[in-house]
Write the structure tokens for this entry.
Amino acid sequence: MAIADDSLNFYGFDLYFDPDQLDLFNAVGRDFKVIGGKGNLAQALKARLETLKGEILLHPTYGSSLPTLIGEPNDETTRNMAVTMFVETMNEENRVSAVNSVSVEFDQKTRNIVRLSASIVPRNAVNQADLQYDFFL
């Protein structure tokens, strides 16, 4: 998942998680890797999309209904439900003020992957940011 542009204002900092390396530590000095700005927002949105709503006991409203679609057929109904759940999840993030122009795509060869794309307006930002998320059914 990626969001274009990077501003360190308002979006905060967090530990950076690289799913390819599975390592939270920086090679130099063995300090934690951190991510800030809109990169942090992108990472937070991905985490929210991949967490089933209610899964975190102390934060029962955090997460998304999107994981409930895992195992469903990749048909028009499922893709429409995915778009609805995606938009609902984006609207629940307090650092996102609007979600615009959502689209869904899938590759005939890899029918278990749905690509959700949207232009979002981060809070306190003038410009839209492009967001893309690949969801595995």
In short: The chain has two helices and six strands. The chain has a mean pLDDT of 82.
